[in-house]
Amino acid sequence: MHEQSKHLIAVSALVKNEMGHVLMVRTHLRAETWELPGGFVDAGESLEVAVCREFLEETGVVIRPIGVSGVYYNERLHVLSVVFNADYVSGEITIQPEEILEANFLHLDATKMDEYIKRPHLKSRILDALNVVHSIPYEAWNLNPPDYKLLSRIDGEHQNVKKVFLLTGKPRTGKSTLIKKLINKMGSELCGGFYTEEITNSNDNRIGFRCVSVDGDSVEIANVESPSEVRIGRYGIDIGKFEKFALRVLQEAIILKKVIVIDEIGFMQMLSSSFQRKVQEIISENRIVLGTVPLDSHPEIDKIKYIKEVQLVRINEFTRDVITELLATDILKAIESSV
Fold this sequence. Notes:
Layout: E1 8-15, E2 22-27, E3 38-40, H1 47-59, E4 62-74, E5 79-90, E6 100-106, H2 113-116, H3 120-131, E7 138-144, E8 147-154, E9 164-168, H4 175-186, E10 191-200, E11 206-213, E12 218-223, E13 231-232, E14 235-237, H5 239-256, E15 259-262, H6 273-284, E16 288-292, H7 299-305, E17 310-314, H8 320-338
Parallel strand pairs: 1-5, 9-16, 9-17, 10-15, 15-16
Antiparallel strand pairs: 1-3, 2-6, 4-5, 7-8, 10-11, 11-12, 12-14, 13-14
Helix pairs in contact: 4-8, 5-6
């Protein structure tokens, strides 16, 4: 029997500024050459999250991956390297001095390539990323048949076509917290709709859920002590209360606001056929949407996840802060393009 091979996965990204110059670094480990910022993927970390994290740690710059430009293998060290093309989002160059000697935007044309890039394998992947016409799409999945969870997708295209931003992640990873941070960052005058909050008892145990409008109105939609015969797990669901509340605040947001907040498009909420139709209507009308969806598969929610206009963003407690800046920038750009 052959021993199962073990491989390391590394990620890096090519990012240009407005002049077309590429952000490069020199490291203590390879001081003689410039290279793309990047590093190894942590256990349980998806590739697009890893490259954003590494880029931010090494350069202080927030990026948005667009797609994969190339995949490369180091046979001796068993390292698989995935290179992304990415957009600059925000931030000023601030290096991590323990690892990085220098970071700068460089003009990499044919006459200067050899001056900056001293290792042929690095030159190869940089040239591929510079010359690629269409980046390759990338998806992250959690596969446990018959349960198939799409975690994230990058289409290989610039994200300025996206207007529907849906956060996904494990329960209690802070999706609703991030929604509220984004509302505060962009301003409540731009946002309408609702988010979901937990109801806890005196021992801080979760006993239910309430929906809260951006304007502050709220209604309890689920409770362990609810007499409702409609139940998900241990929670009794009041579909009538949720439906009346959600449809009202979403309609007000359609009329008065730029960004429609729908937290959550979840199993409880999708028990309402009227809510399902309203969500489909909002997306089909090319509205700007900030929402959340569960990781678990659901036939109607899955249809929404796979819509081309949807940007599905996986979050966890380690990536929330990076994603906050990225999403706020994307949403504000979507608002500007809609004016």
